[in-house]
């Protein structure tokens, strides 16, 4: 709030440009105090994923070095980088199971190289899952929200979802915003921070509680198909590290479901 925000685009925002010269020019023009790389794609197409998740990040890091940027740089990673773990700590050995997770991990390797070799103020936030009605349809929440809206409009009376037999770690946008602010203000140089609730939400329970809260009686069909990086286990962030710099989630799952339904 009260801050100017700049985006890197051309043609009035309809086309996004992430080449080195464009990024360098925008940094010189805007002189931002903070740069956050929100660029990303969930595609399992390696060429597209590499171009967006890896090359754009490398161009940003190169541009930061070329202009001697002195502000804070934030790169956004993903829980998909971890793969299957007993505990999801920031320093565990990553085992990605999707092209998305792999290319995000490649971005992290770039981050490690640049913060070790160059004097830049940068942090890496591994964001787990976002609970918001504006999420991409490629994600569970986005797909569920889209079908939920159609049901509320009376257009359909059936919701089709993938396997719900998993626990995931979700946060509301407000908690994510506060987490980013805390890392920007207090994150230690070169450190990686998990950003999640730190507790698991069983997807079956989430869906049924949302339907109950909205008083919806619809047919729920479970299609046995894997989503991107699907892991039938408990994927929950260890958040002690970000707790130690002063952040913790404000909303529990009861309030998350209530606010999602409003």
Automatic annotation (TrEMBL):
Entry protein name: NAD(P)-binding domain-containing protein
InterPro entries for the chain: NAD(P)-bd_dom, NAD(P)-bd_dom_sf
SUPFAM superfamilies documented for this protein: NAD(P)-binding Rossmann-fold domains
Gene3D superfamilies tied to this protein: NAD(P)-binding Rossmann-like Domain (3.40.50.720), UDP-galactose 4-epimerase, domain 1 (3.90.25.10)
Family annotation (PANTHER family): DTDP-D-GLUCOSE 4,6-DEHYDRATASE-RELATED
The NAD(P)-binding domain, residue ranges: 21-257
């Amino acid at each position: 709030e009260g801050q100017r925000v700049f985006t890197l685009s051309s043609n009035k925002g309809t086309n996004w440009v992430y080449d080195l010269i464009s990024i360098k020019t925008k940094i010189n023009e805007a002189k931002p105090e903070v740069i956050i790389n929100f660029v990303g794609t969930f595609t399992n197409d390696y060429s597209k994923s590499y171009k967006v998740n890896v090359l754009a990040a490398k161009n940003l890091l190169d541009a930061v070095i070329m202009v001697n940027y002195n502000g804070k740089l934030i790169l956004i990673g993903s829980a998909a980088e971890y793969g299957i773990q007993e505990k999801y700590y920031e320093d565990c050995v990553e085992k990605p199971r999707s092209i998305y997770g792999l290319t995000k991990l490649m971005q992290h390797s770039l981050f490690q190289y640049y913060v070790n070799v160059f004097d830049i103020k940068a942090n890496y936030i591994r964001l787990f899952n976002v609970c918001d009605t504006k999420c991409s349809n490629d994600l569970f929440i986005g797909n569920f929200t889209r079908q939920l809206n159609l049901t509320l409009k009376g257009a359909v009376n059936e919701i089709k979802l993938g396997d719900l037999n998993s626990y995931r770690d979700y946060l509301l946008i407000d908690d994510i915003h506060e987490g980013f602010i805390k890392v920007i203000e207090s994150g230690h140089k070169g450190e990686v921070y998990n950003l999640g609730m730190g507790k698991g939400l069983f997807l079956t329970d989430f869906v049924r509680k949302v339907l109950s809260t909205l008083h919806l009686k619809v047919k729920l069909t479970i299609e046995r198909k894997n989503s991107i990086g699907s892991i039938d286990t408990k994927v929950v962030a260890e958040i002690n590290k970000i707790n130690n710099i002063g952040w913790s989630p404000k909303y529990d799952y009861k309030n998350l479901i209530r606010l999602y339904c409003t």
